[in-house]
Design a protein that fits this description.
Blueprint (H helix, E strand, L loop, with lengths): L2 E4 L2 E4 L12 H5 L2 E11 L2 E4 L2 H14 L8 H16 L6 E9 L5 H6 L10 E8 L5 H6 L1 E10 L14 H12 L4 E6 L4 E4 L3 E6 L2 E5 L5 H5 L13 H12 L3 E5 L3 H5 L3 E6 L3 E8 L2 E2 L7 H12 L1
Helix pairs in contact: 2-3
């Protein structure tokens, strides 16, 4: 049974009140943002992993995209933690998946513009759903997964690219296609044929003694140096940031930049990151083995350190 938080109320998922209006901007036009988080229960209590980082990213995107300026990270984080604690009161497991969704609310977008209502003057819909986490087979992390090449490409000139918006249809279609081929993820490229990431994850390659990952939204200027930089459609993943920090603490050289298919295929190790599976080792890309075809030492070490946090 899932636990639902909806606009300030805690509900069961079978409660008729656990629903949104058909006129909600998220339902009508996919106007919204979301975050996927992991909560764990231990003897010391319930902890939502990196809740502040997830919520701050959503709030920043909401302001940048004009979804809502009234959102505050503190109260949102408290709502997520409250939902997680309530869920574990009746759960017989110790790890849960939380989905935080914020939409444009129950207000027609055309009418909003016509009435000249400011972006912060309306009330967004805030929903949090807590349920059991997806259980991944241990063998996947021991042997590594397969990565296939996605057909769709990310557009760096799309102003919503690099934000975790509700417009996930094309990503899910590519993920379904990858899973249909026996893969664990699909590798997405940009329209310039540079690596973007997985369908639902960020991508890292270990090559020439360094850990490389595509430059993400917000990092363009720092990587490019002086002068104009092409916008990046890569999501600045929360787990990605944690892995970058861990890698640096291990004394590894971490580089953010443009990566090609050649960089991936010639890498000694490849792995994906997201909040659900943490660090996912990749040992094959299409029909090509990565390195010696086994999970590498850097990938294994980063996964163990991430799980230990």
């Amino acid at each position: 049974m899932a636990t639902v938080y909806l606009n300030g109320r805690l509900l069961r998922d079978d409660d008729p009140g656990a629903s949104v209006s058909l006129a909600d901007a998220g339902f009508m036009h996919a106007v919204g943002l979301f975050e996927t988080l992991t909560a764990r229960r231990s003897a010391s209590g319930v902890r939502v992993v990196r809740v502040d980082e997830h919520v701050q990213r959503l709030v920043a995107s909401a302001k940048e995209l004009g979804l809502a300026s009234s959102l505050r990270a503190g109260p949102l984080a408290e709502a997520v933690e409250h939902t997680a604690a309530a869920h574990f009161e009746h759960a017989d497991y110790d790890e849960a998946r939380l989905r935080l969704t914020v939409t444009g609310g129950d207000l027609n977008l055309v009418r909003r513009e016509a009435l000249r209502v400011g972006a912060g003057a309306h009330t967004p819909t805030v929903a949090i759903v807590a349920q059991r986490s997806t259980v991944y087979p241990a063998e996947l992390f021991e042997r590594g997964g397969l990565l296939t090449i996605a057909d769709a490409k990310a557009n760096p000139l799309d102003p919503t690219a690099g934000h975790k918006t509700l417009n996930y249809w094309w990503r899910l279609r590519e993920l379904q296609a990858a899973l249909g081929k026996g893969a664990s993820e699909g590798l997405v490229f940009t329209v310039t044929n540079h690596v973007c990431g997985g369908c639902v994850s960020n991508v890292f390659v270990v090559k020439d003694g360094a850990v490389h990952t595509p430059v993400a939204r917000g990092e363009e200027a720092a990587v490019a140096g002086q002068g104009a930089a092409m916008p990046s459609p890569v999501l600045p993943g929360v787990t990605r940031a944690a892995v970058v920090t861990l890698a640096a603490e291990m004394g590894l050289d971490v580089r953010k930049g443009l990566l090609t298919i050649g960089d991936v295929l010639d890498a000694g190790e490849v792995f994906c990151t997201n909040a659900s599976f943490g660090v996912l080792p990749i040992t094959r890309v299409e029909g090509r083995s990565i390195g010696d075809g086994t999970v590498g030492e850097v990938t294994r070490a980063l996964r163990e350190r991430l799980l230990a946090e």
